[in-house]
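Supplementary Methods. Inverse-folding protocol.

Structures were first reduced to a discrete structure-token string of length 253. This string, shown here, constituted the complete conditioning input.
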């Protein structure tokens, strides 16, 4: 389920809870929302609001960390590609074919992670099946150094190739990490109950209802951000392809 749809469903539950609370305010005897009962309702609502705010705050921090880590990995990957191309360029004409293959592998990787630079998610199935970087590594290993300098360059290039293959599989493994569905179900239940309490306590006027609507929209927006940032290779908020495109532009120069 996409992040916008999930956020919209949670928003609908919050609004439904608010409507239920407003209905109960009409049908319940007056003493249920007055005096001591009102104090209990306000205390319960405050407790749930604090709990929900804490959970959402922690999730935003965690999701932002995931996004930043992936963005840093993309940037580092671009830098490693440029460095690898530099080592191969210093190796000599014998590595020209490897550099061209590296260019093709980089272009293929960009196409898999950022297909058409749209909001579509990365084509993880193609990423998993691709062997381009492994082929680059094998071609570097097949080079025959003629002196210590070429041997050094080959060793450094092989190390970078190993790091790049590890980064590729890290992307694939990170994409498997999703927020547990039961967690979203429980959070939705808490929010529904909370807004039912708000609806039960709120006066029947446009100002109060507008304030609750804005609150519900803000919370659903926070959940949307959490889901988007937690999947940095998919959706609307994706990591930038600029570092990889820069690396692609520099390969072979």
């Amino acid at each position: 389920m996409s992040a916008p749809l999930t956020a919209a469903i949670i928003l609908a539950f919050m609004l439904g809870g608010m409507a239920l609370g407003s209905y109960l305010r009409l049908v319940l005897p007056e003493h249920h929302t007055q005096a001591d009962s009102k104090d209990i309702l306000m205390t319960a609502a405050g407790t749930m609001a604090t709990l929900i705010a804490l959970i959402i705050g922690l999730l935003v921090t965690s999701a932002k960390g995931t996004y930043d880590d992936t963005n840093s990995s993309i940037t580092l990957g671009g830098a490693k590609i440029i460095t690898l191309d530099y080592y191969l360029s210093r190796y000599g004409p014998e590595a020209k074919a490897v550099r061209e293959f590296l260019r093709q592998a980089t272009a293929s990787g960009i196409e898999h992670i950022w297909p058409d630079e749209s909001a579509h998610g990365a084509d993880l199935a193609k990423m998993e099946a691709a062997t381009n970087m492994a082929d680059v590594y094998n071609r570097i290993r097949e080079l025959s150094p003629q002196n210590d300098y070429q041997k050094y360059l080959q060793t450094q290039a092989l190390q970078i190739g190993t790091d790049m293959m590890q980064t590729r599989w890290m992307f694939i493994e990170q994409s498997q990490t999703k927020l547990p569905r039961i967690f979203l179900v429980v959070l939705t239940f808490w929010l529904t109950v909370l807004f039912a309490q708000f609806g039960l306590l709120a006066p029947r006027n446009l100002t109060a209802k507008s304030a609750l609507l804005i609150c519900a929209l803000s919370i659903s927006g926070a959940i949307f951000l959490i889901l988007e940032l937690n999947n940095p290779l998919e959706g609307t908020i994706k990591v930038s392809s600029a570092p990889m495109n820069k690396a692609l532009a520099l390969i072979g120069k």
